[in-house]
Amino acid sequence: MKSLDDAIQILIAQARRCDRLAVEGVPLGSAFGRVLAEDIASLIDVPAYDNSQMDGYVGIAVEMNNALEPMEVSQRIPAGHPGEPLRSGTVARIFTGAPIPSGANAVVMQEEVVLTSDGRVRLTTPIAPGHNVRARAGDLAKGQTILTKGRRLSAADVALCASVGVKILRVVKPPTVGVFSSGDELRQPGEPLGFGQIYDSNRPMILGLAKALGCQVRDMGCLPDTREATTAGLAEASLHCDVILTCGGVSVGEEDHIKAAISDLGSLDLWKIAVKPGKPFAFGAIGGATLMGMPGNPVAAWLTFGLLVRPYLLARMDAEIVPLRGVRAVAGFDWISPDSRREFLRGWLDEEGVVQIHGRQNSAVLSSVTQSGGLVDLAASTPIHRGEFIRFIPYTEFLS
After folding, report:
1. How far apart are CA 10 and CA 136, in angstroms?
2. How far is CA 188 from CA 11, 203, 245, 394, in A?
3. What is the average pLDDT value for the chain, to the nearest integer?
4. Would you say 28 and 149 are in contact if contact means Cβ atoms under 8 Å apart?
5. How much is the pLDDT for 255?
6. What share of the chain is helix, strand, coil (3-state, %, to 5)?
7. Letter string b/e over residues 331-341, b meaning 16 or more CB atoms within 10 A of that residue's CB
8. Strand, coil or helix: what is 63?
9. Average pLDDT of 96-105?
10. How far is the C-alpha of 265 from the C-alpha of 138, rounded, in Å?
């Protein structure tokens, strides 16, 4: 069995060797979650001009500090309206975001002045030059790189591009990912269940996870438990998909046909990972398509998608891949019979910041995922005792 870290590196290396995906230009409204194909530079200075950080009064700091009498308010400058050059010995009423008029160099917030009965202004506290002034290019300079190639665009990234005047973004065209489930025991939600049958939860889960990465997804249905039908289904999918994802059928049982079908149609390059849950994981190629076979137990399928499929798909899109870091936390449990494989338990941080684990760690118990907040990463063959430090990986990091 390959170690998890070795398997991840193999998958990323294989993804980088694949033919590059096409690049396309998309408007900002369609760019969320997409991967940048080129660096983005600011088209303007941000801010484009000195402006006020507060609602208040703008003037010359030394004049405002040394004024013996309340100062005249010579003009009113709302946001979006340039004012006139400031007349010496006066201040201007100014609002947040409004341009600083020529000659002025400081803004006093309205709460720090006293207004006289005739509308003049007296400071209640001294101010320094530059006070409450947002300087031109203080955030970004024209031509400065603001986002780099390979970044998956967040909502804030899209907003940043809009703020510097970028209208169209060059992004990687996402891979087409076909998703199969497999097993004669599976029925689709809404169908009646017979004895010995279960609902297919894996396929909608994996379709959702792949779509969340920005992939184009295709629901390929459920493969029956025959080698012939499995082989035919995978062969057909390889003609239309860049990546084929399957759930179930990759173990060593007599009814597990996906591994054999991969060998019949193409190549099996990786099988079995030293991780629990998730050992029966297959990686190979059929024609021009990559195939990744995940276990059938839902927690194992969910975990192997996050640990193995996700970095592969991101690498196919030339995206940045940030290794899981997690946080160092104290165990609130004992785990005295560790597995010989690296193990991931479902758990959460309690109100004291101590890690607790779900009472049911079986890979068939999908509720252990929905009722927890992260993964406890345990080294192989290493017992854990209450009070020891462990690594906890929040789900927000695992599948962000």
Report:
1. 47
2. 31, 10, 18, 31
3. 94
4. no
5. 59
6. 25, 30, 45
7. bbbebeebbeb
8. helix
9. 97
10. 59
The percentage of residues in the chain with a pLDDT greater than 90, rounded to a whole number, is 90
Closest CA to 369 of 294, 305, 292: 305
Entry field: residues in the chain: 400
As a three-state string, the secondary structure of the chain is: CECHHHHHHHHHHHHHHCCCCCEEEEEHHHCCCCEECCCEECCCCECCCCEECCCEEEECHHHHHHCCCCEEEEEEECCCCCCCCCCCCEEEEECCCCECCCCCCEEEEHHHEEECCCCCEEECCCCCCCCCEECCCCCECCCCEEECCCCECCHHHHHHHHHCCCCEEEEECCCEEEEEEECCCEECCCCCCCCCCEECCHHHHHHHHHHHCCCEEEEEEEECCCHHHHHHHHHHHCCCCCEEEEECCCCCCCCCCHHHHHHHHCEEEEECECEECCCCCEEEEECCEEEEEECCCHHHHHHHHHHHHHHHHHHHCCCCCCCCCCEEEEECCCECCCCCCEEEEEEEECCCCEEEECCCCCCCCCHHHHCCCEEEEECCCCCECCCCEEEEEEHHHHCC
* Joined tokens for residue 210: 């792949």
End-to-end CA distance of the chain: 28
Based on its alpha-carbon atoms, the radius of gyration of the chain, rounded to whole angstroms, reads 30
- Residue 387 CB: number of other CB atoms within 10 A? 11
Report DSSP state, residue 174.
Answer: P
The strand pairing partners of 276, in sequence order, are 343
pLDDT, position 297 = 93
Q: What gap in Å lies between CA 149 and CA 318, rounded to an integer?
A: 8
Segment holding 159, helix H or strand E: helix 155-163
Answer yes or no: are the C-beta atoms of 147 and 160 closer than 8 Å: yes
Please give the model's pTM, rounded to 2 decimal places.
Answer: 0.86
